[in-house]
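Can anyone check this?
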Amino acid sequence: MDEPLYEEFLRNRITELRLRKNVSEHRMSLDLGKSGSYIRSITSGTAMPSVKELFNIIIYFGITPLEFFAGCGNENSPRMSLIDKLQKLDNEDLEKVILFIQWIEK
């Protein structure tokens, strides 16, 4: 039986955000109050987090559930590409983007 798409997405997204935060699986697991192998069990596909724990993981990354699941649909769409790029910007650059969008909307 093929693995559901959302499980693969979840594993990959946690890994992507963890690497972006520059934290090991072991460190992240401990930061979440779990055993040192907790995140590894999720990213390897042997376990899935409960809904409560998934929200704790999302909060750990400092993002919203919408931001976490942003790429779960069509990852090649312009909207998903833009969201990915926006997530990499600092606050100063985000303010510039907001001004530009406001200018476009007029």
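Reply from J.R.: I decoded it. The mean pLDDT is 89.
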